[in-house]
Amino acid sequence: MTRGSFSIRYNPDKLRDMINEGKRAKEIMKEFKISPYTLREHLRMLQEQDKKIYYVKGLFDDPEAEQPKSRQAGIVFSKELLEKGGFSPGDALEVTVEDGKLILKKTQED
Questions:
Q1: Under 8 Å CB-to-CB from 93, ≥6 apart: which residues?
Q2: Contact 92, 109 (CB under 8 A)
Q3: Which end of the chain is more exposed for a tag (fewer CB within 10 A), N or C?
Q4: What is the pLDDT of residues 22-61, one digit of tens each?
Q5: What pTM value is reported for the model?
């Protein structure tokens, strides 16, 4: 099989085994040291080779950039996630907890 620069780490046997073991996309990407885009390409090549459809858990989930991340100084939200909620980067927010949910409200700046 011809290998392009994107597929230098392509190992169909190992990829097939990891998928059959139920490994998630993050585990496979870490093992192969590849990006989500490259994993999609490797998956496409494997499916073409095996004439079979494989499903990799977590590969087509929402981009990680949209998930809030907890930091020691607080929670960091992506620009896209803020915009979905009607907020903008730099907005002052009031955070409350109601029934186990975080509620964000834009505060009025003086």
A1: 87, 104, 105, 106, 107
A2: yes
A3: C
A4: 999 999 999 999 988 899 999 999 999 999 999 999 888 7
A5: 0.52
> Which residue blocks in 1-110 are alpha helix, DSSP H?
12-20, 25-32, 36-50, 79-84
**Dihedral sign (CA 13, 19, 23, 29):** positive
Which residues, in sequence order, are CB contacts of 22 under 8 Å at separation 6+? 57
Domain boundaries, the chain: 5-50, 64-106
Distances (CA, A) of 43 to 52, 63, 71, 76, 104: 10, 18, 33, 32, 39
- Residues 32-44: b if buried by 16+ CB within 10 A, e if exposed: bebebebbebbbe
Give the total residue count for the chain: 110
